[in-house]
Q: What sequence folds into this?
DNA sequence: GGTACAAAGTGCGCGCACGCAAGTTTGCGT
DNA sequence: ACGCAAACTTGCGTGCGCGCACTTTGTACC
């Protein structure tokens, strides 16, 4: 039978993952991201190159992960827990909260990421990671009657967050119109997520119309 | 001044692109996708390997492109043209129409794609390609007053289509519940897009409330 | 016609992602 | 305490994506 709960195993895994994250970011900051070979990261973390690739499927991913951390699962947890407010507000609130950096780990890291195009892309792509955990969280609130709806809404939220992040990291010397000053990320997230609210509300209301399947 | 309209140039470009698509698919069908090297595709299309990589950034992309073709831009065109129906219906209709394969180019190709995991992923990812053209189409209908809303909606539509395609290509021996028989893709698309309708409707209605900025 | 410039094609070289088949560690059953 | 199976790591080999510098091809302007 496959081992279900393994303590030390999982612990070690997270340790090396963390070590890799940290090493990647540190080296990238020290020498600039173009002067960091994958071998260096692996070596700094004390594992083989091959093992490194078992954890991250690209160099950028490792660097960005140091800043992203476990943001996704925390968002999902908050959404699942905040049953006292509407689904819409729970989702928006959770996302805004998690992307509001109280004492941003490393402003230098953010600067680095937003500068280099490939890192920007990797950073923006992290938004898609919230899709899976968010699906289960939303499904729980909707009562699992319609798994598909939950998946769709989660995917849309993830896509929207991605749009917001894209806009946030842009230098954007816009063409004709006045370029909106970047402003704070929380505000941007709220405004970007706004068009999605009707869909979330509708899904939640429908759930009440037919509580049991 | 940079040349704006170039005839022969663009023509040749599309020709080689098409040649690469065709070669990729043909070879993949003949020998199985694992026995096709990028060099083979390039050679069959009569260009260098490097040029091949100027058109497609992965082997899978080239193979899948043969079936996907220019689906995205056609969707956008239909959405922009169908001003006599509501935005929601225009979008859903256009997508369903373009994904309804009247005489599917190659059933063998589809079989191949849905079989191999890496090809499945590449196929599913093509859905994201509709985002950009769809953004401009929706923005045109909403009156460009809110570019951001258009981007968000387009991103959500793309994400939702991706979810639908994911579900469609799954063998899905589900765990507990009864496994939904795959059914026809058009139906699946309609049902998957359904939860998104409120958001599209709301955006369109708001446009009427404040025609000018 | 010729000329000057941008855009597409090409060869080279370098890391990098990942499949595979070992070797090593962890944890469970008895 | 012992052994075994699953999980994790590692080295090797291969193909691939792409930056760079250079050549070729199409286009515009004279």
A:
């Amino acid at each position: 039978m496959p081992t279900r709960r393994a303590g030390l195993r999982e612990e070690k895994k997270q340790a090396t993952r963390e070590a890799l994250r940290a090493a990647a970011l540190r080296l990238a900051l020290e020498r600039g991201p173009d002067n960091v070979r994958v071998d260096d990261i692996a070596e700094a973390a004390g594992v083989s190159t091959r093992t490194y690739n078992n954890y991250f499927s690209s160099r950028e991913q490792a660097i960005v992960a140091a800043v992203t951390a476990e943001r996704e699962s925390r968002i999902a947890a908050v959404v699942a827990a905040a049953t006292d407010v509407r689904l819409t507000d729970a989702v928006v609130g959770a996302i805004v909260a998690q992307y509001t950096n109280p004492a941003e780990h490393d402003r230098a890291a953010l600067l680095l990421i937003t500068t280099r195009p490939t890192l920007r892309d990797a950073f923006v792509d992290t938004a898609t990671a919230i899709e899976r955990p968010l699906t289960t969280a939303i499904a729980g609130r909707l009562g699992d009657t319609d798994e598909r709806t939950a998946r769709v809404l989660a995917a849309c939220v993830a896509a929207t967050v991605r749009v917001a992040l894209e806009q946030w990291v842009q230098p954007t010397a816009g063409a004709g119109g006045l370029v909106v000053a970047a402003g704070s990320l929380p505000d941007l997230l709220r405004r970007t997520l706004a068009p999605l609210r009707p869909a979330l509300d509708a899904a939640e209301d429908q759930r009440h119309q037919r509580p049991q399947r």
Observations:
- The CA atoms of residues 144 and 210 of chain B lie 12 Å apart.
- The interface with chain A takes residues 148-149, 151-153, 155-156, 158-160, 162-163, 167, 191-193, 195-199, 201-203 of chain B (CB under 8 Å).
- Residues 2-3, 6, 9, 12-13, 16, 47-51, 54 of chain B lie near DNA strand C (CB under 10 Å from a C1').
